[in-house]
Task: inverse folding
């Protein structure tokens, strides 16, 4: 703690924003996003990328299969100076509608932490 805070001397913070450009707000739904040309373009780019990568394909709905629904996530991308560079829309699977043991058996999330990578590299170097 500093001497000022021990003595109870505080200075109110006055946030200052130098943002001068208009930024579309994050849409609350995909319906609202389609009304804004910036977000509409971002959604089209994401959809085209998914089709190009062949991430999924459209098939008829089998009656005995639970459908995993998808949802759109929206965010602004900024450069290191804080300037808006692009609008990013991501189409992701919404796993809340899945049942354990019926739709999937186990989950796997591969996580590499920097400390683990350093340890493996140290071990490899120490044993040639």
Result:
């Amino acid at each position: 703690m500093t001497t000022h805070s021990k003595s109870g001397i505080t200075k109110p913070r006055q946030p200052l924003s130098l943002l001068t450009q208009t930024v579309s707000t994050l849409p609350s739904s995909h319906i609202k996003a389609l009304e804004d040309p910036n977000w509409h373009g971002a959604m089209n780019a994401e959809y085209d990328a998914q089709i190009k990568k062949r991430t999924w394909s459209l098939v008829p709905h089998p009656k005995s299969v639970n459908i995993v629904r998808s949802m759109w996530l929206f965010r602004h991308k900024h450069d290191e100076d804080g300037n808006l560079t692009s609008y990013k829309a991501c189409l992701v699977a919404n796993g809340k509608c899945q049942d354990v043991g019926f739709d999937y058996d186990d989950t796997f999330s591969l996580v590499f932490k920097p400390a683990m990578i350093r340890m493996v590299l140290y071990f490899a170097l120490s044993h040639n």
